[in-house]
Prior knowledge:
homodimer, 478 residues
Amino acid sequence: xxxxxxxxxxxxxxxxxxxxxxxxxxxxxxxxxxxxxxxxxxxxxxxxxxxxxxxxxxxxxxxxxxxxxxxxxxxxxxxxxxxxxxxxxxxxxxxxxxxxxxxxxxxxxxxxxxxxxxxxxxxxxxxxxxxxxxxxxxxxxxxxxxxxxxxxxxxxxxxxxxxxxxxxxxxxxxxxxxxxxxxxxxxxxxxxxxxxxxxxxxxxxxxxxxxxxxxxxxxxxxxxxxxxxxxxxxxxxxxxxxxxxxxxxxxxxxxxxxxxxxxxxxxxxxxxxxxxxxxxxxxxxxxxxxxxxxxxxxxxxxxxxxxxxxxxxxxxxxxxxxxxxxxxxxxxxxxxxxxxxxxxxxxxxxxxxxxxxxxxxxxxxxxxxxxxxxxxxxxxxxxxxxxxxxxxxxxxxxxxxxxxxxxxxxxxxxxxxxxxxxxxxxxxxxxxxxxxxxxxxxxxxxxxxxxxxxxxxxxxxxxxxxxxxxxxxxxxxx
Amino acid sequence: xxxxxxxxxxxxxxxxxxxxxxxxxxxxxxxxxxxxxxxxxxxxxxxxxxxxxxxxxxxxxxxxxxxxxxxxxxxxxxxxxxxxxxxxxxxxxxxxxxxxxxxxxxxxxxxxxxxxxxxxxxxxxxxxxxxxxxxxxxxxxxxxxxxxxxxxxxxxxxxxxxxxxxxxxxxxxxxxxxxxxxxxxxxxxxxxxxxxxxxxxxxxxxxxxxxxxxxxxxxxxxxxxxxxxxxxxxxxxxxxxxxxxxxxxxxxxxxxxxxxxxxxxxxxxxxxxxxxxxxxxxxxxxxxxxxxxxxxxxxxxxxxxxxxxxxxxxxxxxxxxxxxxxxxxxxxxxxxxxxxxxxxxxxxxxxxxxxxxxxxxxxxxxxxxxxxxxxxxxxxxxxxxxxxxxxxxxxxxxxxxxxxxxxxxxxxxxxxxxxxxxxxxxxxxxxxxxxxxxxxxxxxxxxxxxxxxxxxxxxxxxxxxxxxxxxxxxxxxx
Lengths: 478, 478
């Protein structure tokens, strides 16, 4: 059986995880390294994954009352500087426009690294009364951060994302929004991308520049490293004060409103790859796979085979599945390997004998399991196989997360777990940033989050030995 | 009856068309002037119009085999310079990034004014064989052009658009594609936006920088001026040669492929406003209106009214209509004026007596005509009113285009038509650019296009008197 050249070129995960990742990303044609350092081309297959994720998120944003808008690409330096913590966090990685047409600009303009300042500027002009609140906005766009080292999907100088920005009359309402959107993200990660999540609060050290609180979703990759997968921020009224956004409340007094922002990026695609992929390549979550079912005719030169395959493909499409027929002149074996490498959740094989028997063979990407499927009921059964694939993928990833999240009481235990097993380590923490820094120096891990509603992992901080009540999950992160 | 403040502030069209336009754009909350000169915020209502247009276009692109991708935002100067005509056209209006983080860049980077060079760069790396062709790509993004003067939707320094880029094995196929996409655009303009189109070829003078042929769609606005509404370009193999894109054809020889690009932008929203709007404000084409039906309860404090209005709104939604209930505490009169100003195609009034009679009153935005509609059959009837509104809007605009497109044989006739009536003037033209320039100097009009399949408007060029066979449509353009 001829094997696709693409498949042969994928390094095994165990041999070199980083190389495996790069191989999958390029061989599955998700990404092309562009001529501009740190910038990537999202090719059709990679972009189609993003489009499907976008649709899932956008529907949920609209169901929760959010409206899409478009803000300018460029931020005047004076605007970026209005909120001090924010500018400190972002100025070092800004790209600056200094020339427009042939004229030297009087004030240089930064390509947005994030758009809090632009939303604030707009709101300062347009919000007057409690009747104008809440503002529940979202923007789909790309942002720029001049990173030193980059990797496909995980760290780009330019990346695609959505950034939600909302403005509320009260702090309570804003905090509720921050948490609501984290739950929307968790819903998409778990029920769409089959990625179990760890939700929690970031420590002050790891907070977003300018935020009072940053909520995060952390996922565990195949190599047991953490991927910060999206974040949701509560700003209090700090930005409102810095940008002089005020509103007249129902009681006729002038107040500062409270603000949030939350973002989800193409980094999630890196997470999908490193959570579900295997040595044969990509394994795509069924609900966002650009092609959910690939129909491969076998002995397609035999009369009737191609016609029946085409008919089957159309039936699947009419049933709402993203099905495709591979009519190329490659051999069936080549096609099997190719679509496997591209992570298509279900392959259907259909040959003359299958047609005679009124069936086709459905092969699951996740484990290669073959099922005879009656042609008559194919759409419903394929849908079941997709649902089941999702469930198995989630369960596998959940088992990995659970097995590799361990509790430690002493620094010795932390170091032992990290060096022997890796994964996440849970400890209590005194709350002192110095201990957080020392944890990184001694055990090589950073705080991933203060998880929600977790039982206490001990009584004293493993670093300083002082009484501690906060539980922190530590890990090595991308 | 209380009238909305917003409505009072709209200047009448006849008094000052430009001011009327600005009033509509801002009072209907489509746009906010941002703090950065020439950059605009698309507010929720304006962006929702764009999202609906996007959905209509994107579906058609996919049905014709196109795939979406994402290219970098920035173009290295050396890349931009590879195609000489192209760089000459765009370099004067580029915004340049010269600083990344804290480092001065070795080569300055231009924010994309259009992405031909980036697509070429990608294709030069990834296209090898006839099997890789055609490439049918599209990108949704924003682009930057450092314009001197700007106007909402019509001319921004940054604007949202889609840019299709395709690569083909033969010139014939590429030309077919260029024309196919022009037809897709025409379909959307006429059958979705209710805007009749004039299709044709641009003269060499008005061509896109680097194109062999530029096809255009020109629409006539309320003030009889032309709006170049979108374009489709055929490049021959010029870009392929400049970027060294080659492929091995079936006959095993190395060839240069042929290329197209085509773009449709938020400028179309300016076109919608100036085609359909009136002195009461916006008039939105029903198929892209963010709110197609606004339900206004009358005497809503009376028992049962609000409940029945809510029920009706939900029924309309279930039937697939974009319906909204206005539950604010404003007076019905205020609401009528407000939604009229915002261009909502159908208003439904529902009061206690209507409910008793088992009906509601539907009011068409286009002419205020009122129809009693049985509550039982409301969704189907409202849909008919929307369809009819579309047809009437198209017919009105078509009548305006036809009535104001006149034929002239001499320069005297051209000048008389333009000064007395305005609109479009059709003449023959010798093909000499000098005559095109003189036409502008003498009559103040530019060539809009060489229309398709038109009968000849005369025998000699009205400017130079030489024999002429091409027909050109002239006009004053935005």
